[in-house]
Amino acid sequence: MKIKRTTAQDPNFTSLIKDLDRELAITDGEDHAFYDQFNKVDKIQHVVLLYENDWAVACGALKAYDPQTAEVKRMYTRPESRGNAYAGKILQELENWAADLGFIKCILETGINQPEAIRLYQKMGYNRMDNYGQYAGVEKSYCFMKEL
């Protein structure tokens, strides 16, 4: 296993998020178009990839939400690589990088139809918060925050 910090232009990241978007289209159902508009990578500069035998199998990204807050985006692990705690390793590296960049907290949004993600974030010390920004008032969104 190897972890790499990179950018949103990395072709391995592009490949992983295509798979993520296909999976989310099913998970989100009729709500996918709403959520998809907030998952563009044009404002993402910080990406973490996890490699298993030189093959990119998991990813996550950071986007500045405000000067003190980094938003965790595009968390994904290929189905065949799940169950190896890779998502936790990605999230830890993202938190380390966010702290290196001067952020003091991380926030994120996930959906009620993603119980595995909710469990991961809670296990990693994230606490449920009021829905922020574009997710305010969206009942199917769960937002979380962690002080770094």
Describe the structure.
The chain is of the alpha+beta class and 148 residues long. The protein has a domain at 2-104: Gcn5-related N-acetyltransferase (GNAT) (Aminopeptidase), CATH 3.40.630.30. Helix content is 32%, strand content 34%. The chain is built from four helices and seven strands. It has helices at 11-28, 32-36, 86-100, 115-123; strands spanning 2-6, 46-52, 55-66, 69-77, 105-111, 127-129, 141-147. A seven-stranded mixed sheet has the order 1-2-3-4-5-7-6, with helices on both faces. A hairpin with a 2-residue loop joins strand 3 and strand 4 (69-77). The longest helix has 18 residues, at 11-28. The chain is globular. The model has no long low-confidence stretch (mean pLDDT 91). Residues 1-148 form the N-acetyltransferase domain. It comes from Salinimicrobium oceani. Keywords: Acyltransferase, Transferase. This is GNAT family N-acetyltransferase.
Essential attributes:
148 residues; alpha+beta; Aminopeptidase; 7-stranded mixed sheet; 7 strands; 32% helix; transferase; GNAT family N-acetyltransferase
Write the layout of secondary structure elements.
Elements: E1 2-6, H1 11-28, H2 32-36, E2 46-52, E3 55-66, E4 69-77, H3 86-100, E5 105-111, H4 115-123, E6 127-129, E7 141-147
Parallel strand pairs: 4-5
Antiparallel strand pairs: 1-2, 2-3, 3-4, 5-7, 6-7
The parts where pLDDT drops under 50 for at least 5 residues are none
Q: What would CATH call the class of the domain at 2-104?
A: Alpha Beta
- Mean pLDDT over the residues: 91
Count, helices: 4
Organism: Salinimicrobium oceani
Protein name: GNAT family N-acetyltransferase
InterPro entries: Acyl_CoA_acyltransferase, Bact_Acetyltransf, GNAT_dom
Domain N-acetyltransferase: 1-148
